[in-house]
Amino acid sequence: MKFHELEGLCKGKITHQVKDAEIKELVTDTRNISIRSGVLFFAIEGINHDGHAFVQDAYDKGVRCFVVEKEVRLPSDVNVIEVRQSLPALQLVAAYHRSLFTYPVIGVTGSNGKTIVKEWLAQMLDYKFSIVKSPKSYNSQLGVPLSVWQMTESHHMGIFEAGISESGEMERLEKIIRPTLGIFTNIGEAHNAGFSSLQQKADEKARLFKDCKKVIYSQAYPEIAQALKETVSPETELVAWKIDDSKGNQITVQIGHHFLNLKLRFSDPASVENSLHCAVALHVLGFGQEVIQSRLDTLSSVKMRLEMKQAVNRSYVIDDTYNNDLYGLEVALDFLHRQNQKTKKTVILSDLYQTGLALPDLYSRIDDLLRNQQIHRLIGIGKEISSVRDQFHTEAEFYDTTAAFLASDFAVQDEIVLVKGARDFEFERIVERLEYKAHGTILEINMESLTNNLNHYRAKLRPEVKIMVMVKAFAYGGGNFEIANLLQFHKVDYLGVAYTDEALELRKNGIHLPIMIMNPSSDSFRFFKEYNLEPEMYSLEQLIDFVDYFEGEEAIPAIHIKLETGMNRLGFKENELKRLVEILKLKKKLKVKSIFSHLAGSEDPRHKEFSLQQGRRFEEMSEEVMAALWYKPMRHLTNTAGIENYKQFHFDMVRLGIGLYGFDPVKSEEKKLQIVGTLKTHISQVKNIKEGESIGYGRMGFAEKNMKIAVVPIGYADGYLRAFGNGVGKMSIKGQWVPTIGNICMDMTMLDVTDVKVQSGEEVVVFGDSPTIKDLATWIGTIPYEILTNISQRVKRTYVSD
Question: Which pathway does this polypeptide act in (predicted)?
Answer without folding.
Answer: Amino-acid biosynthesis; D-alanine biosynthesis; D-alanine from L-alanine: step 1/1
